[in-house]
Amino acid sequence: MDRSASRLGIFGGTFNPVHYGHLRAAEEVREAFGLERVYLVPSARPPHKGEGGLAPAGHRLDMVRRAVRGNPGLYGCSYECRKPGPSYSIETLSWFHRRHPAAELFFIMGWDAWLEIDSWHSCRELFTLANFIVISRSGCQPWLEAGPEELFPFALKDLFCYENRSCYQAGSGKKLYFFAVSRLDVSASRIRREAAAGRSLRYLLPDSVIGYIDSHQLYRGEER
Ligand code: ATP
């Protein structure tokens, strides 16, 4: 068990497959928030996405680990892949909290995921365990344009106090940050479509992951 007061990032997703959009965002957040490490945590059974077109969790974890090889600041975490049942972030955060009791945790998610967070299991409790960093997806920064009213899903509207346009504080003292990352218009669904059509995947994701997809014949079925 680690008792040092480190700052750790937890970046959840399906990573089906991991790509440069994920990797660059994780790296920029790590640097800007002074995080020692960002854990990329592939969800074995994502409650919010169907399992159609989902590569086995072990393959998605292996691809993440290949993608981050050589960068000590990023790490592929197997927790949700080892755990039976649905992948709930509340359980993942509780596990990190037990494992790193003195660490300050930062949960990283995209703007698209944030807009649905009120449908997540124990969504209000999430903000007692970690700070949250919501990253921009398509380069837009809605928190600069929208009023606070539009920023929060209904179930969370009363949870946060305004600090500034990109930072709010929950009653627990945990912070919610909105943070702009580089605009890399890459998505896993596009990569799966390109792979299914037999087109090049170069420069959308690391060569090591492309090699893995080729050697395991992933995403070769119907286009999704
Ligand atoms: P899919 O296309 O299958 O929906 P995805 O590319 O969105 O997949 P996920 O694994 O679902 O990948 O994403 C994990 C997290 O990373 C989400 O919170 C998502 O918003 C964020 N994300 C994905 N792609 C990018 C990108 N290009 N830039 C910034 N964030 C991204």
Structural write-up:
This protein has a single domain (7-185), classed as Rossmann fold, CATH 3.40.50.620. 34% of the residues lie in helices and 19% in strands. The protein is built from 10 helices and 8 strands. It has helices at residues 20-32, 57-68, 79-82, 89-99, 111-114, 123-129, 142-145, 148-151, 188-196, 207-215; strands at residues 7-13, 37-42, 74-76, 104-110, 131-135, 160-164, 167-170, 175-179. The chain has an 8-stranded mixed beta sheet with strand order 3-2-1-4-5-8-7-6, sandwiched between helices. Helix 4 packs parallel to helix 6 (123-129). The chain is globular, with a radius of gyration of 17 Å. The structure holds adenosine-5'-triphosphate.
Report a brief summary of the structure:
By secondary structure, the chain is α/β, with parallel strands linked by helices. The chain contains ten helices and eight strands.
Query: What portion of residues belong to β-strands?
Result: 15-25%
Tell me the name of the CATH homologous superfamily. Answer: HUPs
Task: Please list the strands of the largest sheet in the order they lie side by side.
Answer: 3-2-1-4-5-8-7-6
Q: Give a count of the beta strands, DSSP E runs of length 2 or more.
A: 8
Average pLDDT? 90
CATH level-two architecture: 3-Layer(aba) Sandwich
* Integer-rounded radius of gyration: 17 Å
Poorly predicted regions = none
Net shape: globular
Secondary structure tally, helices: 10
Oligomer: single chain
